[in-house]
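Appendix B. One record, verbatim.
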Amino acid sequence: MDLRSPKRSIVQFLAWRVLWWASYLICGSLRFKVEGLDSVLERQTAGNGFILALWRGRTLLPIYYCRNLGFWAIISLSRDGEMQNRIVSRYGYRTIRGSSGKQGARAFLESVRRLREGGVLSVTPDGPKGPDREVQMGTLQLAQRSGCPVVPVGASARPRKLMGSWDSYMAPMPFGRAAIVFGDPILVPSDLTEDEASDWAARIQSAINDVEQRAEKLTLTHG
């Protein structure tokens, strides 16, 4: 019998609770400027599935602001993923568990099904291990298989702390300014050559960078 398991479970329970409350209180103190969300909600109301794509290091603000909207998120089966799953579930997200390493095929097929049913799926195309800010082929294949467009999302906050992790995770400071920008949908053709697929991945990558730059500017200008 592993006597460490109950203790580890208690620590994990307390950890995700603390992280959830910290994120909720900090994000709740921010002054938000948001662009493009109305179009996203209109598409959702019409029953049109689509993929929200944002960099892994900028997920906190959209997770908070889009809480309880019924969005889906893919969460890995790792120990960190379990904590993340508890946090995003508390924010009202529905989750699909899996990653490229574990049960990736099952998670991919379930994601395609949810999208075809009209769901909104949030993905981090550079996750879970990077390289940072590079769109991996999984996101492209998800868009192709489902026939649903990709909506780029950018987020920023000032003042903020950039963590030392590979994705330079952004943690906003309390009572600051925050911005989220939802870009125009990108519909990926279903039949692409390898070179064309790389071009479309680069197009999505550029679109995410563009809306993030827009969010950066908004944090410098809005009151």
